Amino acid sequence: MLTLRQLRYLDALAANAHFGRAAAALGVTQPALSVQIRELEKALGAPLVHRLPGGVRLTAVGSEIASRAAAVLAAVREIEEIGHARGRILGSRLRLGVIPSIAPYLLPGLLVRIGERYPDAAVTVRETVTRTLIEETAQGELDALVASVPLGDARFEEVPAFKDAFLLAVPAGSVHATHSSADPSQIAAEELLLLEDGHCLRDQALSICRAIDPSRLRSFGATSLTTIFHLVAAGQGITLVPEMAADVGVASDPRLKLVRFADPEPYRMVGLAWRRNSPRERDFRALAELLPADRQ
């Protein structure tokens, strides 16, 4: 008889294509995973995976069953969500995704506010780039995500929470620091420092500095704003920074100066998004109401 555990194990194996990585993702030992997959193969009377030296590949039957297993697991998650939705607001575990250019600056205050308003809330956080959070939320691995909205994805409901203005962070002794306001047309590609590809903050900065040819930007693999701030402080360039990050990472550093852009100021809209038609919409809207407290 098939079990949900076996289907979850097959789903993880399909996603990771490797017994070791799938076992780590599930939090079980590799032998335990292997036993369950063999039991599933025995119950179905067909091989599900090709065991290869560097990993595994699903058989044709395995791929079909894994696809149907994913649908079953999604339905089970929806059943669980229906039960959670009938309880207290945020009274059950909520898996929240947050992008890296928001998480360090929003979460400290947000988690405190959640605890004060909803003492029974249990929030787990996943921090990664928008594209990954979108897919993990769509697949039910996360319940909701905080990012720049709109996402432009019809699979999601969204609630805009607050505007986060962009500022120009420059070395205190630079020519830019003498200007009363920043002008995107005066920013050269050679001096602009941005996060690596895949971060929506990079795309937003380039949309503000429309005259810049992205191919002329310096290539380096910074994945955090903190790294960018240190480079700017050392006189290596300038960067666009969200105001919520500037308040924490820049304002107290005498080597850096923040310059506001002339009106209309560029900004990003920060909001909460979740799968359309989720039965936990009440929870998500309650959470969205707590987001703006740090930015008035």
Q: What this model shows, in words?
A:
The protein has 296 residues and is of the alpha+beta class. The protein has helices spanning 4-16, 19-26, 30-44, 60-85, 103-117, 130-138, 200-208, 225-233, 243-249, 281-290, and strands at 49-52, 55-58, 93-98, 122-127, 144-148, 156-171, 239-242, 256-260, 267-275. The strands form 2 sheets. Strands 3, 4, 5, 6, 7, 8 and 9 form a 7-stranded mixed β-sheet that branches. A two-stranded antiparallel ribbon has the order 1-2. Helix 1 (4-16) packs across helix 2 (19-26). The longest helix is centred in the N-terminal third of the chain and has 26 residues, at 60-85. The termini are far apart. The mean pLDDT is 88.
CATH class designation of the largest domain: Alpha Beta
Q: Using DSSP, what is the number of strands?
A: 9
CATH topology of the largest domain: the name is: D-Maltodextrin-Binding Protein, domain 2
Proportion of strand residues = 15-25%
Q: For the CA atoms, what is the radius of gyration?
A: 23 Å
CATH superfamily of the largest domain: Periplasmic binding protein-like II
The structural class is alpha+beta
The total of helices stands at 10
What is the N-to-C succession of helices and strands?
A: HHHEEHEHEHEEHHEHEEH
Amount of helix:
40-55%
Instruction: Note the gap between the termini.
Output: 56 Å
Q: What would the average pLDDT be, to the nearest integer?
A: 88
Describe the largest sheet. 7 strands, mixed
Tally of separate domains:
3
Low-confidence stretches: none
Shape: globular
* CATH architectural category of the largest domain: 3-Layer(aba) Sandwich
